[in-house]
Structures are given as C-alpha cells and as structure tokens.
Design goal:
Elements (H helix, E strand, L loop, with lengths): L4 E4 L9 H19 L3 H15 L8 H8 L3 H7 L10 H11 L2 E6 L3 H10 L8 E4 H4 L6 H10 L7 E4 L3 H10 L3 E5 L18 E2 L6 H15 L1
Parallel strand pairs: 1-2, 1-4, 2-3, 4-5, 5-6
C-alpha cells in the first residue's frame, strides 16, 4: 500500500505555541524594557514595529538576528523558560500511530537550528522523523515556494502524495503553490488563545492531532480506488 509522506510543522502544530507567545509577547518585552530602561508600553511598541517589519522572513525566525536587533539574548531567554515547552493535544498518540502504521514522517520547521534543538531536547520528537529540516538550513522560510523546491531537491518527494499539517496560512499557501495537495491547519495553535473559527480558515482544521487519522484513511481509500 502506497502511503503518503506526512510533513509536520513544529510550533503551533506539534508543540503548543503558548511557549513562543510567552517568549515573544511577554518575556522579551519585559527584558527589553529592563535592558533599555524604558516602559513596558514603549518596549511593546518598539518590538511590535520590528515584528511587523520582518514577519514571514528568515530574520523573523532567527534567535541571532533578534539578539543583535533588540540587545537581549533571545536564545538564553528561551532556555530560561524551557520548562514551558509542551506538546499539543494528541501529539504523541498520533505520531505513535503513524509510526506503527509505517508512515514516513518529516518535520518542516521555520525555527532556527538553535531553537529547534532546544525544543527537541525538551519534547522527545526526534526519533519519529525520517527527515528534519529547519528553514535556516534552506535559506528560505516555508512561506516561499523556493523552500519547497530546495527541500525536494535534497529529499525527493511527490507533492501529490504528501500531507502538510501547519498552523500558518502563508506557509500552507506557499506549499500549495508548490503543489502539495493535502493541506491541513490547526484550530488552536496556542492554549493561551481561543480556538480559531474553522469557517474562517481556508483549509480543513483539526484540534486534537489524532483528528488527522480520518483524513489519511480517506486519502488511502481514494488512492486505492484510483489504482484498483
């Protein structure tokens, strides 16, 4: 039986985005205000401007870039609060199921290598994945079609027989332009925020990660019908 490759995003998909929310929206503004002796409001305004300027670029995901930009050791800050790194609901149940069923799982993350390693030190995911890619290695973030082209050159795969599960719409759009056909998003990337409205999302959405299983079963039925 020909099984699709399952590609997973990390932050907001397999891991609770609450950790990143805590770091970037709370702890970094606090540390930035302390470092530069300004008010928390001023710090938030400054960082918000920086964030908007670099959103969806490689710099956005780079600990080194932000450390030099804002004068706070961002990676050290992440290590200070690493006990807050946690898997999302159904993460291990789904990955165990996929492994038992013989699916090939790949991890595709925009996290830089330092943040990726920190997270994998805290949540034991590495052994589930045949391929692990950080956009830092590729030179483009996942929002860009070039990311997927370079990944395919390095690790050949058929986009028509691939699933991508990711919480970020621009990433799913980039993957869709490249040709990945089976795109699924996440209802509640961060437990610090309310679930999103499924009707406002452009892709099928799941909450508990085990909800992916019926999509895979349906794909398999359709694939078998085509090749029968």
């Amino acid at each position: 039986m020909n099984k699709p490759i399952i590609m997973f995003d990390m932050d907001g998909t397999l891991l609770d985005l609450a950790f990143d929310d805590l770091i970037w929206n709370h702890k970094l503004p606090e540390r930035h205000a302390l470092t530069h002796k300004c008010s928390l409001e001023q710090s938030r305004a400054t960082l918000y401007e920086f964030y908007q300027e670099h959103k969806h670029t490689l710099s956005w995901y780079s600990s080194n870039y932000w450390t030099s930009k804002v004068g706070v050791d961002v990676l050290k800050l992440q290590y200070e609060f690493q006990d807050k790194i946690a898997p999302r609901q159904g993460c291990f149940e789904l990955l165990d199921h996929l492994k038992q069923q013989g699916y090939r799982c790949w991890l595709m993350t925009n996290a830089d290598l330092a943040s990726l390693n920190l997270k994998l030190e805290n949540v034991n995911l590495r052994h589930y994945f045949e391929v692990i890619v950080s956009s830092e290695e590729i030179g483009y973030s996942k929002e860009f079609i070039e990311f997927w082209q370079i990944v395919q050159e390095k690790y050949p795969f058929d986009p028509a027989q691939t699933f991508l599960i990711d919480d970020t719409a621009p990433v799913l759009q980039g993957a869709g332009k490249f040709g990945i056909e089976n795109l699924i998003t996440i209802l509640q990337p961060s437990t610090l925020n309310a679930p999103r409205n499924a009707l406002e999302l452009n892709y099928p959405a799941i909450q508990n990660l085990t909800e992916l299983e019926p999509y895979l079963d349906q794909y398999q039925k359709e694939f078998n019908a085509k090749t029968a």
